[in-house]
Design brief:
Helix content is 13%, strand content 38%. The chain is mostly beta strands and 371 residues long. Among the domains are: 61-128, Trypsin-like serine proteases (Thrombin, subunit H, Beta Barrel); 260-369, Pdz3 Domain (Roll). The longest helix has 14 residues, at 242-255.
Length: 371
C-alpha cells in the first residue's frame, strides 16, 4: 500500500487497464529449441517483414491533424476508427477551438469537427465533414493481456513528418499520469493503467495509434515524460490503453461526453514506513480513506475518514481501510479506481469490505456521477 499527502486524489478519477496481444511472422528457431505455440503473442526473433507488414496494413488509417489558431498551425495525429468518418485523437490536440483539417496519407485534405471529448482520458472524436471513399479504419484491440517486453509500433506525425513509424517495447503497465481534467485548482484527475513504452514519441505524435504486431490498436500515444526543466526524457512515452478507449469511445460518439462513476473519497499515494506506522497501517493492504467528500456516495453510505491527530501533517488516523471491492482484493487506490471505471457505471452498486479499527464491515453503496 502506498501513501503520501502530496498525492491526495479523488476517487472519482478515470482509470484504465492494460492491453493485449500480437504476433510476428515466422522466424528461424535455433537448433534444440521448439517453435512457439501457434497463437503466441510474439516470435522468438522479430524480423523486419513483420514491421513492414503492419505498416502496410495500417498507415492509410493514420491521419495528420492540423488545427489553425490565430495564424498558427498546430500539428497532431489521429486514426480512423470506422467507415462513418470518425477519427480518434487526443483532447489536447484539438482543444484550442480552431478550425480543423485532416490530412490523409494519400494527400487528400478534409475538414473535420469535434463531436465528443474527454479531458481525463485525453480523448477526442472528430467527424469528417465530407467522407472520402478511401477510409481505412484500424481495428481496436483489447488491452487486457499486454506483457512488459512485448513489441509495439507507433505511427504518427512527429514534428510534421507524416506517417512516421517507430518501434519499441512495452516498458511498463498500469502507470498513472496527471491529466487535463481538474478536480480543483490544486488537483488534477488521473488517467490510470497507462501504457509506458520506449518507442520514440515526439511532438506531433500525440493522438496516433500504438499498435501490436497484429496491426490492432492497443493504445493512443498521448505524452512523453519531461524532466520538469523543459527537457524531455529519452525512451519514456505514454499511451492511453485501448480498454479505456473501448469504454469511453461509444459515449463520446453518441453523447459527446463520458460520465464517470463516482465514489467520493480522498486517499493517499506513496509514503514511508513511518507514515504507515503512524496511521496504524503497517502490514495492511488496501485503500486508506483520508477524507470523505461532503454529499458523496461514500458519505451517504457511512464510510469514515480519519479523525484522530497523527504525526503526519494534514492527515488524520483512524479512517476506514477498504480491502475488497465486490469481493476482489485491492492493494491500493489505483486498483480500486481501475475496477470501478472499467466495470461499473453511475447508478450501479458496489460492495466494499472495510477494516474499521479491529472490526471488519461490509458496506454496499450506489455509485454517483462524477461532478
Amino acid at each position: 500500500m502506498r501513501f503520501s499527502r502530496a498525492n491526495l486524489t479523488k476517487s472519482c478519477v478515470l482509470m484504465v487497464l492494460l492491453v493485449s496481444c500480437q504476433l510476428g511472422s515466422p522466424s528461424i528457431i535455433p537448433e534444440n529449441q521448439s517453435s512457439p505455440a501457434p497463437g503466441s503473442y510474439y516470435d522468438y526473433y522479430l524480423d523486419e517483414g513483420s514491421l513492414i507488414a503492419v505498416y502496410g496494413r495500417t498507415q492509410a488509417g493514420v491521419v495528420s491533424i492540423r488545427q489553425y489558431i490565430e495564424g498558427r498551425v498546430v500539428f497532431g495525429s489521429g486514426f480512423i476508427i470506422d467507415r462513418s468518418g470518425h477519427v480518434l485523437t487526443n483532447w489536447h490536440v484539438v482543444s484550442a477551438g480552431g478550425s480543423i483539417e485532416v490530412l490523409f496519407s494519400s494527400g487528400l485534405l478534409a475538414e473535420a469537427r469535434v463531436i465528443g471529448s474527454d479531458e481525463t482520458s485525453d480523448l477526442a472524436v472528430l467527424e469528417i465533414e465530407e467522407i472520402p471513399e478511401e477510409l481505412r479504419p484500424i481495428p481496436l484491440g483489447s488491452s487486457s493481456e499486454l506483457e512488459i517486453g512485448q513489441v509495439v509500433l507507433a505511427i504518427g506525425n512527429p514534428v510534421g513528418l507524416q506517417n512516421t513509424m517507430t518501434s519499441g517495447i512495452i516498458s511498463g503497465l498500469s502507470r498513472y499520469t496527471r491529466t487535463y481534467g481538474k478536480v480543483d485548482e490544486e488537483q488534477a484527475f488521473a488517467n490510470a493503467s497507462v501504457i509506458q513504452t520506449d518507442a520514440a514519441i515526439n511532438q506531433g505524435n500525440s493522438g496516433g495509434p500504438l499498435l501490436n504486431l497484429d496491426g490492432s490498436v492497443i493504445g493512443i500515444t498521448s505524452a512523453k515524460l519531461s524532466s520538469g526543466f523543459d527537457r524531455s526524457v529519452a525512451g519514456i512515452g505514454f499511451a492511453t490503453s485501448s480498454d479505456v478507449i473501448n469504454i469511453i469511445l461509444p459515449s463520446l460518439i453518441e453523447h459527446g461526453k463520458f460520465e464517470y462513476p463516482y465514489l467520493g473519497i480522498l486517499s493517499l499515494g506513496d509514503s514511508s514506513l513511518a507514515d504507515l506506522e503512524a496511521l496504524d497501517l503497517d502490514g495492511k493492504n488496501g485503500v486508506y480513506i483520508a477524507e470523505v467528500v461532503s454529499g458523496s456516495p461514500a458519505e451517504l453510505a457511512g464510510l469514515a475518514a480519519g479523525i484522530q491527530i497523527s504525526r503526519i501533517p494534514g492527515v488524520r488516523s483512524g479512517g476506514d481501510l477498504i480491502q475488497k471491492v465486490d469481493n476482489l482484493e485491492i492493494a491500493n487506490f489505483e486498483e480500486l479506481m481501475d475496477y470501478i471505471v472499467l466495470n461499473k457505471h453511475p447508478g450501479e452498486n458496489i460492495t466494499l469490505t472495510i477494516l474499521r479499527g479491529s472490526e471488519n464491515l461490509v458496506i454496499q453503496l450506489g455509485l454517483g456521477t462524477r461532478p
